[in-house]
Design a protein that fits this description.
Helix 4 crosses helix 5 and helix 5 runs antiparallel to helix 6. The chain has one domain. A five-stranded antiparallel beta sheet has the order 1-5-2-4-3, with helices on both faces. The chain is built from nine helices and five strands. Helix content is 41%, strand content 15%. The C terminus is likely disordered. With 205 residues, the chain is of the alpha+beta class. The protein is globular.
Length: 205
């Protein structure tokens, strides 16, 4: 099995990627999602914590097949350095194991560890964590080796973030790596950052 990972700047882009992965035959239980929820926009219908949903392999399968959108039904979790997220799937089950509760200390390090254990480069894992901290959505899929190239192509066809370019952008600001001891970004700062990513180019005469 190989791990295919993509960071997205919008829920719609992540939604399309997940649905395309499903259409290509990737099982819902092999897909994991972590999405920033600093603005409190997303909520769970049941109020169940993410550890229970992820541990059961639930969440993603229900989301993809449901009508409530990509993030409906996922569990809620507070990640140090990131803040509140909605998440579910095998990655979270790996990261937090049997821990339960609305907030799980050290979960961010657990996510990075889970990614690297699954074969993701550690430097990339830090960019993914920082991307979620800044409002992004992380989609991770476990696929058979024979499907890895096709799954990666699906992500690239779904407006996935160029991780190398995003790392350069972060490093230009003096960023050296994800720090779970950092203060989470407030909702208004995340909104401004998201807007800057989709701002139209400046036309010069």
């Amino acid at each position: 099995m190989k791990t295919i990972t993509g960071l997205f700047d919008s829920h719609d882009e992540a939604d399309r990627a997940v649905r395309s992965l499903k259409d290509a035959g990737v099982n819902g239980e092999d897909i994991s999602i972590v999405a920033n929820n600093a603005d409190g926009k997303h909520d769970t219908e049941t109020g169940d914590d993410v550890a229970e949903g992820a541990g059961a392999g639930a969440g993603v399968g229900a989301v993809v097949g449901g009508t409530g959108g990509l993030l409906a039904g996922l569990g809620m979790l507070a990640i140090p350095g990131v803040g509140p997220v909605v998440a579910g799937g095998w990655l979270l089950a790996t990261a937090i194991g049997a821990v339960t509760g609305a907030a799980v200390g050290g979960a961010a390090g657990g996510i990075i560890g889970a990614l690297t254990d699954a074969g993701v480069d550690e430097r990339d894992a830090h960019v993914y964590a920082e991307g979620v901290r800044r409002g992004g959505i992380l989609v991770t899929a476990r696929v058979e080796d024979s499907r890895a190239d096709a799954a990666a192509a699906i992500l690239h066809d779904s407006s996935v973030v160029d991780i190398a370019a995003r790392r350069r952008d972060y490093e230009a600001e003096g960023w050296e790596g994800f720090d779970e001891n950092s203060e989470p970004y407030p909702a208004d700062q995340i909104r401004d950052y998201r807007a800057s990513l989709i701002a139209p180019p400046i036309l010069r005469s």
